[in-house]
Amino acid sequence: MQRVVVLSGTGMLDLANPDSLEGTGFSLTGTEELTLETPWGEVPTKVVTLADDSGGERRLFFIHRHHHPDGWTTPPHMIEHRANVAAARATQPDALVSICSVGAIDHGFPPGTVGLARQTLDLTGRVWTFHDEDAAHADMTDPFDRTLSGLLEAPLSGQGDNLCIDQAVAVMNGPQFESSAEVEALHRLGATSVSMTLNGEARLTAETEMRHLGLMLSSNWGAGRTPGDSHAPIDHHAVEALAAQMQAVVWDCILTLLRHDE
């Protein structure tokens, strides 16, 4: 792949600054800060240019979904997903990768591990579309590209034995974490993890020609799911810190995609 957009959030602010690419087959050749204009606002984007061992060039476009013009962190229910996805589309990428911190519901997906989004269960009640004036009905049968997701099964399976990497991701509005009763209901509906942002990106990307991947970072147990302590509280700062520790796995996945030539 020549061009990949990485759309990320919690704990991923430093993702666009790789500490070391030694032994990966890639070298950093340049970085650039862009501001992409969309009908729904400006989107700051960092472009990272890499060279492979044969001298070929690859570009990564990093978008922080919580960006705010005044430097604040836009809360999940206030994110303008149309701006982010439109900006991603403008780069003409080979793939869009959504990286989301999630609360683990399935006990086979413990905090500190990374999984693949396979399906979404959208309970936000919010509508996201580029077609407000002329109806278009995008297919959501398989919202995430199965072929490209398959490329990441090997590096993700290396995180542990019997790891549940195929995630059915429930999406809630936030910004509060879910209650124990809500998480139990999501579990009964078949969800294996819960997010606050994936639905907007998945729905809008389905209306484009972009291929979409979802990397889910298990950053905490969902409310009531902590083994041995069903009343364990969830701390936002601890969630961010744990998500940041998974950057090496995320980079491994990104570089795996860049090595893939179709």
Question: Could you please describe the fold and organization of this structure?
Answer:
With 262 residues, the chain is of the alpha/beta class. Helices cover 23% and strands 29% of the residues. The chain has one domain (3-259): Rossmann fold. It is built from seven helices and nine strands, in the order E-E-E-E-H-E-E-H-H-E-H-E-H-E-H-H. It has a five-stranded mixed β-barrel, surrounded by four helices. Strand 2 and strand 3 form a beta hairpin. Helix 1 (81-90) packs across helix 5 (198-206). The model has no long low-confidence stretch (mean pLDDT 93).
Tally of distinct domains: 1
- The span between the termini is 8 Å
- Poorly predicted ranges: none
Helix/strand-derived category reads alpha/beta
Overall residue-averaged pLDDT value: 93
CATH class: Alpha Beta
Spatial order of strands in the largest sheet: 5-8-7-6-9
What do we call the CATH homologous superfamily? Nucleoside phosphorylase domain
Question: How many separate helices?
Answer: 7
The residue fraction in helices comes out at 10-25%
Rg on CA atoms, Å: 18 Å
Could you spell the SSE succession in H and E letters?
EEEEHEEHHEHEHEHH
In percent terms, what proportion of residues is strand? 25-35%
The main sheet comes to:
5 strands, mixed, barrel
Q: What's the total count of β strands?
A: 9
CATH fold description: Rossmann fold
Shape: globular
- Which CATH architecture is right? 3-Layer(aba) Sandwich
